[in-house]
């Protein structure tokens, strides 16, 4: 390996495809860098197109060389962090192949960023709802590989619900199209869905077909601040109970608010310890009517309610919400953010157990996330350079995972298993389901070369 491997890859793909020098470092990490995770690779390549990806996979498959597909590197599970092998960056596959606004659909390369999909759709009055928070960096291939969600998943679902087809290079370098522009398809097993959330372990996604919808003309956030978690959770339950079809249903607890309080547009009441964010959307009259109903449902026990009818208010709100993760990180320089997901009725217990896990290990803790989906970003704030503290956070995370499973939930709602949760997976799935997972991995990747050691570890 080493120099010989680089020379071979340069011959195969052309020297332009090799990433070299200090830039390599950027390809050895993802968002788990905030908890001190860093990888090592034998080579980093950025193929120029689908045919080059095929040539590379064929070459690696013949020689037994591991491949680590990489999108924008924003993942929270260490999925793109290499443990040797060749990092395959999809960044040069960035064309929108066809965009047919009148048919509400788009076919594109895997390396197109999520934000570009949003912008392109918007410019033609259309909407692609999945909105994971690092959209300027994350790529549609990475979104598919993680089956990414985001705040608007509450009403609109996750990436899988918007992908009608996946194009991927599989073992041996073959190109497969799983689905396409067709909106319904039950021919064969649903391999398209299987690729959604496969975390680079079944093949390399090179393209996709997306379905879009007409953009809702009006979007009106409705926020409410509470003096306690219990009061906030009661308000969330009222939104469900009143049958209000909010587009988002988010929360931030006291610790998350304390991290981002100063930047909240317009200021928060000093005694606010829990914030709920809902959003009414649709045609202007419908959105206004729903905003009023949300206002009423959230107002009981609230310290303050905001109904944000101005576009600038909404923009500032979501910009602030997008910065929460970074503000929390800023508290101690690092953080370990988990994303357990529990049935909605167990939300309050999950919030308490997250805090208890941090307390038990002596770590400052906070959480925020997608309350309507029961999806909590329980976070332990750490100094990522302090190995003992990282180990304590890992212990706290294990307590959290146990709690999630006990509450009937899952250890990951949207970030995936990757490197960091792989030991926990058998515990959640049990023996028989785990065996099926292993058999699926073997069927797609008999030589265990697509992102080995991630998600489903072969015995
Ligand atoms: C501030 C912030 C907020 C976030 N908010 C959310 C959120 O609300 N909801 C959410 O779901 N996530 C969220 N994320 C996590 C992350 O943005 C998503 O998981 C995103 O989908 C990852 O995409 P990426 O292109 O960066 O993938 P990467 O990090 O590069 O890779 C992630 C995984 O996908 C695989 N992969 C990437 N591209 C391909 C491909 N073309 N073919 C096969 N496998 C591939 C990698 O091997 C790896 O296993 C957030 C991250 C940050 C930093």
The count of strands amounts to 17
Fraction of residues in β-strands: 15-25%
Q: What structural class do helix, strand and pairing data support?
A: alpha+beta
Largest sheet at a glance? 7 strands, antiparallel
Low-confidence stretches: none
| Gap between N and C termini | 26 Å
Give the helix proportion (percent range): 25-40%
Order of strands in the sheet with most strands: 14-11-13-12-16-17-15
Number of helices: 15
Bound molecules: flavin-adenine dinucleotide
- The dominant shape is globular
Overall average pLDDT: 97
Q: What integer value in Å does the Rg equal?
A: 22 Å
Tell me briefly what this model is.
By secondary structure, this protein is an alpha+beta fold. It has helices at residues 3-13, 50-63, 114-123, 140-146, 153-156, 191-195, 229-241, 254-260, 284-299, 311-322, 324-332, 347-360, 387-406, 425-429, 431-444, and strands at residues 43-45, 67-70, 86-89, 96-100, 105-109, 126-127, 163-170, 174-179, 204-211, 213-214, 218-226, 249-253, 274-282, 304-307, 334-337, 365-370, 375-382. The radius of gyration is 22 Å and the shape is globular.
């Amino acid at each position: 390996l080493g120099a010989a491997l680089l020379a071979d890859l340069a011959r195969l793909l052309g020297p332009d495809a090799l990433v070299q020098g200090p830039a390599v470092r950027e390809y050895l990490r993802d968002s788990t860098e905030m908890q001190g995770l860093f990888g090592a690779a034998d080579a980093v390549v950025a193929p120029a197109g689908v045919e080059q990806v095929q040539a590379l996979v064929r070459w690696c498959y013949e020689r037994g060389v591991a491949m680590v597909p990489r999108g924008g590197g924003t993942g929270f599970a260490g999925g793109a962090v290499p443990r040797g092998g060749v990092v395959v960056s999809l960044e040069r596959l960035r064309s929108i192949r066809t965009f047919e606004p009148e048919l509400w659909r788009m076919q594109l390369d895997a390396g197109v960023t999520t934000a570009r999909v949003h912008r392109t759709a918007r410019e033609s009055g259309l909407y692609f709802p999945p909105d994971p928070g690092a959209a300027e960096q994350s790529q549609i291939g990475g979104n598919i590989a993680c089956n990414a969600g985001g705040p608007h998943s509450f009403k609109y679902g996750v990436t899988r619900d918007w992908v009608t087809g996946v194009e991927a290079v599989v073992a041996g370098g073959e190109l497969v199209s799983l689905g396409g522009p067709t909106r319904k398809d039950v021919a064969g097993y649903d391999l398209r869905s299987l690729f959604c959330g496969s975390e680079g372990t079944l093949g390399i996604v090179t393209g996709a077909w997306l379905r879009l919808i007409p953009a809702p003309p009006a979007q009106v956030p409705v926020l409410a601040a509470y003096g306690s978690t219990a009061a906030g959770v009661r308000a969330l339950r009222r939104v469900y109970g009143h049958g209000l079809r909010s587009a988002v249903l988010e929360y931030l607890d006291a610790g998350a608010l304390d991290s981002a309080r100063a930047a909240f547009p317009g200021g928060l009441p000093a005694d606010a310890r829990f914030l709920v964010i809902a959003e009414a959307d649709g045609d202007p009259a419908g959105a206004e009517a729903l905003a009023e109903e949300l206002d009423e449902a959230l107002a009981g026990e609230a310290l303050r309610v905001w109904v944000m009818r101005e576009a600038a208010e909404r923009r500032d709100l979501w910009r602030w919400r997008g910065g929460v993760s970074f503000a929390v990180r800023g508290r101690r320089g690092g953080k370990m953010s988990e994303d357990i997901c529990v049935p909605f009725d167990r939300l309050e217990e999950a919030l308490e157990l997250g805090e208890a896990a941090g307390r038990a290990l002596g770590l400052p803790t906070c959480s925020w996330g997608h309350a309507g989906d029961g999806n909590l970003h329980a976070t332990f704030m750490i100094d990522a350079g302090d190995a003992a503290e990282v180990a304590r956070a890992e212990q706290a995370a294990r307590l959290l995972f146990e709690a999630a499973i006990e509450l009937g939930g899952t250890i990951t709602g949207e970030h995936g298993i990757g490197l960091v949760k792989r030991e926990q997976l058998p515990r959640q799935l049990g023996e028989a389901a785990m065996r099926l997972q292993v058999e699926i991995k073997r069927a797609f990747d008999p030589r265990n070369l697509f992102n080995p050691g991630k998600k489903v570890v072969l015995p």
